Amino acid sequence: MAVLRGDIELAGLTKSYDGVTTVVQGINLRIPDGAYCCFLGPSGCGKTTILRMIAGHEDPTGGEILIGGENVVGLPPVARGTAMMFQSYALFPHLNVRDNIGFALRIRGLSKKDRNRQTDAMIEKVRLTELADRLPAQLSGGQQQRVALARAAITEPRVLLLDEPLSALDEQLRVRMRLELQRMQRDLGITFVHVTHSQLEAIALADMVVVMDRGEIRQAGAARDVYATPRDRYVAEFLGGQNVFAGRVDAINGDLASFASPQMKHIAVPVGSAPVSTGDTIDIAVRRDDVGLVRPGVDVAADTSWLASRVLAVEYQGNFVKVMLDATGTDEFIAYIPERTFFRDPYAIGDVVQATWPSHLARLLAKTTALTA
Amino acid sequence: MSAVPQSVAVADARVTKHAIAPSRGSRPWTFYVLAGLFTFYVIALYGPMICIYILSFQDVRGGLVFPMKGLSLHWFVDLFTQVRTGDVKGAFDRSIKLAIVVTVITVVVSFMSAMAFRRRFPGDNIVFALMIGSLVAPGLVLGIGVGLLFNAIGIETSPYTSALGAQLSWTLPFGVLVMFAVMSRFNPAWEEAARDLGASTWQTIRLVILPVLAPGLVAVALFGFTLSYDEFARTLQTAGPQNTLPLEIWSMTLNVTSPSLYALGTVTTIISFLIIGAALGTIVFIQKRRGARAS
Fold first, then answer.
1. Which residues does B contribute to its contact with A (CB < 8 Å)?
2. Segment among A57-66, A305-314, A315-324, B21-30 with least mean pLDDT
3. In chain A, ranges of CATH 2.40.50.100 domains
4. Given an 8 Å threshold on Cβ–Cβ distance, is B207 in contact with A103?
5. How far is B188 from chain A (nearest CA, A)?
6. What is the ipTM of this complex?
7. Short-list A292, A288, A293, A245, CA closest to A269
8. Nearest to B207 by CA among A107, A299, A134, A109
9. Which domains does chain B carry?
10. Among A103, A116, A128, A147, the residue to mutate for chain B (most B Cβ within 10 A)
11. CATH classification of A241-361, choosing from 1.10.1040.10, 3.40.50.2000, 2.40.50.100, 1.10.1790.10?
12. pLDDT digits (tens, 9 = 90+) for A244-296
């Protein structure tokens, strides 16, 4: 049997349920074979619809879905070589763990002996041997998830599709099962496509993060790229960890833009070759952990940007301290100060401070509409 | 240092003890009032029926009222041997057979309509309203209407045509409503999961939908059977020349003045209980079997 590749290509993929509003708007995306890909976005952004179209539970209104180079639109799930793990798992309530996992083999008409041999091997793999005779209702959330994973994996798919697999679990279990998913993906060596609304989950698991908004891809790339270098305000705000604020450009010296407003006169932003001219309003992102705080009057280095502001609130987070500032008007401005640094000279609420960061670490964001919250 | 948590723990234990065992002392007076009310209710509910069962076991001197005269199975024998009490055996036979046909149709149609009503379709509200309409229509009027209609188009009324239709107008809405309730707990993702694992539509129905819904289907069957077996109003004008059991009992109340009437009541009750027992037993069996495989 030829080795089936599990790379996925979405070309102009569109979905509309009523012919008026499109929930998925002409998506183009390539997911490499064996990748762990996370679709990330708020509810209603079309991420689950894309997953269901790849799985074959929903037909696209337009466009193509290629798996291993072959257009699969119109094929049933089994012919696509995909398997889906449903949100809340959809385990068959009348079948025990063994029969749930062996369901696909029963459908294929395997003899009971062959079926049980393969099923038991899979049960062992997900460490459920002692629970093989239990009904789903007698299992914990984490155990149910392992059954769902095993039931999908036993079909030997080339693509495993996971719809919010961790959302039914409590916080601690979620972190544990995250590791388990990662381990399964390495063991199976197949493409995982995982839909989630949790940025933590996405960046912890994925080789490739696809940030979605209202049926469109805002940014797709490696987890670190998407987190550290968000393309626009939406991505920066959704992934968090960034201060995003807007300013009107007053002058451009070399590749640094500066601002007119008195609040922002000490800020310089590298704009590179971006088409920015005097008078434009631009969005800027500064990582919260790049921001330092100094008392007013302390000299700052020449290539450092700074903002004068007042401390609004202080939250102790253990390894760092989250300091909220009133620096930029309506936009939140937060500094993550390492715990030891903070407590060398702690700030109280109401203190006047200067928020500083090396100018070259600020990033110009592409202009898009703000996230409507 | 350790004294403080200890005293807290002691205080805690005392509070808990008090909270979980409030009935260790005397019960509140409301308990006795409500218990009395419930006892009265049970007596009012079952007393009249029990009178009939007791009176059916009199001997040959027995009458229609208390006191009991002797103790024997005389009137049960009388019921099945004497012609003057009417064709009880035949009526019983016809009722059971009709009820079985009604049950099968009710289960099949209720299941299929519940499957259909999972999705919205044009006119679904109208279909639903029409269905409930036949439930609220007065039974006697509906029965007379069916009888008149058959008369008008020149077809003889008979158990398996007019009576069957009239009874289905009663059992189907019930069956469909029960199935709706059962279906509301059916997760459509189960079907999708089956399809995802390669099952055809028929395999999905056979291996997932039917087994999951089995207890509900047994309940619908029980409903269909007892509603038909008991049905009087709609059957009166539609059963044709021969009586079903409820019609036979009714005619006996008009012209039989012996305890064999009570004996008939006892026999039909026993059969009803047997059927309910069988249905509940089936549900328990289904669940036991799942539990047995699960342990």
1. 187, 189-190, 192-199, 203, 207-208, 211-212, 290-291, 293-295
2. B21-30
3. 241-361
4. yes
5. 9
6. 0.81
7. A245
8. A107
9. 3-55 (no CATH), 87-255 (1.10.3720.10)
10. A103
11. 2.40.50.100
12. 988 888 888 878 888 888 888 888 888 877 788 888 888 899 999 999 999 88
Q: Which residue among B187, B196, B212 places its CB closest to the CB of A83?
A: B196
* Gap from A28 CA to chain B (nearest CA, Å): 25
Q: Give CA angle at B211 (B207, B216), nearest 5°.
A: 150
CB–CB contact A94 B290 (8 Å): yes
In the structure, what pLDDT confidence band is assigned to residue B6 with cuts at 50, 70 and 90?
Answer: very low
Of B192, B198, B212, the CB nearest to A93: B212
Q: What is the DSSP string of B143-160?
A: HHHHHHHHHHTT----II
What is the model's pLDDT at position B205? Answer: 93
Give the nearest partner residue to B293 out of A86, A96, A152, using CB atoms.
Answer: A96
Q: Among A79, A80, A82, A128, which residue's Cα sits nearest to residue A102?
A: A128
Reported as type and span, the H/E element at residue A354 is strand A352-358
Residue A55 to residue B197, Cβ atoms within 8 A: no
Span(s) in chain A for CATH 3.40.50.300:
8-228
Percent of chain A at pLDDT > 70 equals: 97
Q: What is the pTM of this model?
A: 0.78
Looking at domain A8-228, its CATH superfamily turns out to be P-loop containing nucleotide triphosphate hydrolases (3.40.50.300)
Q: Which two tokens stand for residue A280?
A: 């434009």
